[in-house]
Design brief:
One of its GO terms (molecular function) is hydrolase activity. The protein has 312 residues and is of the alpha/beta class. Helix content is 36%, strand content 18%.
């Protein structure tokens, strides 16, 4: 019996050692080793398609981010600026391509950050959930939130191109739609003029007893910040035919399914819950909801409509 116990103890200790090594290695790889593409030289944006790589965080060189841009020939300082947030495929170049013609036609400077991650199929916390928490559940400082990266990119572009715009617009589809509505809720102080969250897979409800990312529990959001979020201009943009839960990656956890059977229903329910909360508390509410007819989960078709929700 003692031999069996000793053998079991050795196996258990060996497994624990392997687990500790794996967790430690994973933590170092994810959060200590510098990540991202090689930095490019600092310069002004080229007309039409361009890209550059910058540090994602202001006070750390641990992470870099590639930023794709499209600058129309007639664009000048004080003209409109739009951030476009890609979907879960993290295909920023495809999203830029979808916006080129729209950009030229409407004279909008389009900026598409690429939140690259080799493990994006297995993790969503670093992008559409804002990087509030690490993969292991510990809190990240606000300076490393994905939403703060957008503000940093805006500052970088303003500085290197002598741009004096005080605000920008932002559009996101699918995972990008998740990103946009959470940014409005978690960082209402961001310099966003108009936000469009299109066809998000699921939402962060203004519920303090629900764990993030389904609700606000364990986040720094307060009644005061929710009230401020409701004053921002946010459009929940839905595709009439985005009602197929089998299309692409669709979260089917218990809390997600409570929001609705498909993206169309979840978007509608999210807006209703926020609107009801604002009415109950007599708060200003500048959010809107709209549905694009005969369109499903298609970022190109939704992009072509989203431009109509950006102020001239």
């Amino acid at each position: 019996m003692n031999k069996i116990f000793k053998t079991f103890k050795k196996i258990f200790l060996a497994l624990m050692l392997v687990l500790i090594v794996l967790i430690t290695s994973g933590y170092i790889y994810l959060y200590k080793i510098p990540k991202g593409p090689e930095l490019t030289e600092v310069r002004t944006l080229k007309t039409k398609s361009d890209s550059f790589v910058m540090h994602a965080y202001k006070n750390s060189e641990r992470k870099s981010i590639k930023v794709w841009t499209y600058k129309p020939e007639n664009w000048k300082n004080r003209d409109r600026i739009l951030f476009v947030m890609h979907g879960g495929g993290r295909n920023a170049d495809d999203y830029l391509d979808a916006w080129k013609e729209i950009s030229e036609k409407n004279n909008v400077l389009v900026i598409v950050p690429e939140f690259e991650n080799k493990f994006s199929k297995y993790t969503t916390n670093d992008y559409q959930e804002g990087n509030l928490f690490t993969f292991f559940g510990s809190r990240n400082p606000k300076e490393e939130w994905a939403y703060q990266v957008i503000e940093n990119i805006f500052d970088q572009i303003k500085k290197t191109n002598s741009i004096t715009n005080e605000n920008y617009n932002i559009f996101g589809h699918s995972a990008g739609g998740q990103f946009v509505h959470r940014m409005i809720m978690l960082m209402p102080e961001a310099r966003i003029e108009n936000a469009i969250a299109a066809n998000a897979g699921f939402y962060t409800l203004p519920e303090e007893d629900l764990e993030y990312p389904y609700g606000l529990k364990n986040t720094p959001i307060t009644d005061s910040s929710i009230k401020e979020s409701f004053t921002k201009k946010l459009t929940i943009l839905l595709g009439e035919n985005d009602n197929d839960p089998n299309l692409e990656t669709f979260r089917e956890t218990e809390l997600a399914m409570q929001q609705g059977k498909h993206r169309l229903e979840r978007g509608s329910n999210f807006y209703k819950r926020a609107n009801t909360m604002a009415k109950e508390r007599l708060w200003n509410f500048n959010w809107e909801i709209d549905t694009i007819q005969n369109v499903g989960h298609n970022y190109r078709e939704m992009s072509s409509q989203a431009i109509n929700y950006i102020a001239n």
